[in-house]
Amino acid sequence: MGTISPEKICTDRKRAIEELIKDRARDTAAQLQDLFGKPTGDLRGPEELVVKLLTSFTVSLSVLTSSCRDCEVCQIPVTTQVGSPSSGESSKRPAAKDRRGCYKRRSTSEIRVEVSTASEDGHGWRKYGQKDILNAQFPRCYFRCTHKHDQGCQATKQVQRIQEAPHMYRTTYFGHHTCRSHPLNSPSQNPLLHSDPLEPYLLHFEPKTITTEKKHNHHLYPSCPSSVPSVKKECGEETVQSNNLSGDLPVVEPIVWPELMPLEYSSSGYSTASTSTSHGFDMDLLLESGDFGSDFPYDENDFPLAS
DNA sequence: GATATTTGACCAGC
DNA sequence: GCTGGTCAAATATC
Q1: Taking residues A37-50, what's their average pLDDT?
Q2: CA distances (Å), origin A112, targets A35, A51, A77, A276, A284
Q3: Which residues pair with A173 in a beta bridge?
Q4: Highest taxon of the source (predicted)?
Q5: For A67 and C8, how far is CA from C1' in angstroms?
Q6: What is the separation of C-alpha A188 from the centre of its chain, rounded to a whole number of angstroms?
Q7: Given a cut of 70, is residue A114 above it in pLDDT?
Q8: What is the average per-residue pLDDT within A122-145?
Q9: How confident is the model at residue A140, as a pLDDT?
Q10: Among A67, A74, A259, A285, which residue's beta carbon has the most beta carbons within 10 A?
Q11: CA-closest candidate to residue A142, choices A160, A124, A130
């Protein structure tokens, strides 16, 4: 009988990782968790099972990714160098009358994927596009760093609502911030920027302290609230950082958008619906190291910002 | 008036 | 040829 080649093993492992990472098992568990949305301190029955399930995913991912870390096949997190630092979008523009669409498409840059329920990452993002994606129910929004021009920051991100879990958003970060728009951008100051590549795979459960001061973003910027609050602020003055993934970080202002939690939140606070407690699990799956946050590519009526 | 968002157009890659 | 990513003019908001 033939033996299974290492490549085959790695391929299978990769598939397993993808199954865990992508929309299926993890999001299903997340949906279950969301259905329960119970406080952290009193887990019983189904709620506890959900937490255990999510924890199992975390452990599985860690095992799978650690067992073959150096294999190319298993390199789910794509962290390759860009061919040239001069690969700016304007480096290869033809002298056309209309430069629209004339750009240098990013080849492969540092990619980080995050799935979270809400909030932002403290960076200033400017939306530069939106596309309807084939076979996707929701459009994909494209953001670039606000400091792209003034500081040459090449960080971009894509935000897309997860079809199977509409209350969650998949944020894909490309590149990293070279601007100084946020103190947490520094690994030494950001406990999330672990040196261990496995750390980002952890599912983060955190007690979310709900405040009622979440109006300003949503009301001022109903379309893409998370992309905006910090836009007009100077570097280092970011104060809104709701997607706090670590208990070490101060919860400045947890943001829960009404459309995300329609049964729980009202303008005056939270009702006593099933997930209305002042504490709840905020599951964030960091699939790659580094940044964190997501966006809300929907308007105040919860309609996709499609054309 | 300045800045951000929307949206159609264009191009790269498959 | 199709799809996704980006640009930039038009528009909206502050």
Answers
A1: 48
A2: 27, 24, 7, 31, 13
A3: A112, A157
A4: Eukaryota
A5: 47
A6: 21
A7: yes
A8: 88
A9: 92
A10: A285
A11: A130
